[in-house]
Amino acid sequence: MNTLSLDKIYQAAFILKAVARKTDLILAEKLSPDHSLYLKTENLQVTGSFKLRGAYYKISQLTDEQKKAGIIACSAGNHAQGVALAATRMGIKSIVCMPDGAPISKVEATKALGAEVCLVPGAYDDAYEEACRLVKETGATFIHPFDDDEVIAGQGTIGLEILDQLPDVEAVIVPIGGGGLLAGVAYAIKHLHPNVKVYGVQAELAPGMYKSYKSGTLASLDRVSTFADGIAVKHPGENTYNIIKEYVDDIVTVSEDEIATAILALIEKQKLIAEGAGAVSVAAAMFGKLPIQGKKTVCLVSGGNIDVNILSRVITRGLVNSGRNATLQIALEDKPGQLVGVSSIISQCGGNVVSVHHERSDANMAIASCFLKIGMETRDFAQIEEIKTKLTEAGFKLV
User: What is the pTM of this model?
Assistant: First the structure.
């Protein structure tokens, strides 16, 4: 039975004053000049994610007997840290089951906050099954990451803050994994300002709630494969689905490349670090996935806990996708001066050579020829095309 109410969300807001930050709402003019785009910066929240809100409120509502028995949770990382911090603050023992592929930074942060971490082979849903087994074995209370009304109420406090910070907001874009964040924010906003549009965004390689919303029936996925680990959920929540189908205006998906480009844009233009899950809302706005032209729109940046190794790859992919990084392969006659000719043309066009590789062993080449692979830093796609044209005009053969 659904016990979510506006009163419960207000109660959560009062309790969270002692632990959660009221994160800034920032005007992001540089991200999308055609829109009045604002960022709700939950990536700057305590523990680096909104998840603290729902976890802390849920745990605060447990009975003394439940607290004494301890708590168990499952998470790809952000819920884990919220549960660990909340449990430690309240003197409660916590065990968190995490998929073994979770970023090392999130695993170590969870341990540092006082939780016992149990790494489980597979994805989030495998960690969930292990957590359920441990609950039966130990008698501890399970703290669900999204499909729980107290957790949803905690996340809904973000909706209250958005309305307080931008009373004339017209649209809000929210990331979706299991749906707890979107359900809470949509419930709060639609009860107070029903004319505000609320949209959800998923990674197209983990579209569980998207498929459920579009088909009208709760759908599960066989597998998910997005680098946005915070929203890589096979089975959306039943409670969250019921709330979302009632209060959300639309759900869209974004590609891995679009997410990477959004992360890079946030770094360069707003000086903000977002993880993949946190950047999907910005990606949807940047790539025109929703009808927000001319509307005051808030993109909820839900978290910033991205593994540094992944961040490096994402930046590289984002540079390629925006025409800032390019690789050319050229078939050359293997004789002195060829490399000078190629690099001179690139330099004259304003490009910067960052890597050079000669390949002489390809069996398909003539004996006296080679392949030259050149990595370049460029301004945009137009500059790449200019370089290609100049090279071709100079007699070089692009492969």
Answer: 0.89
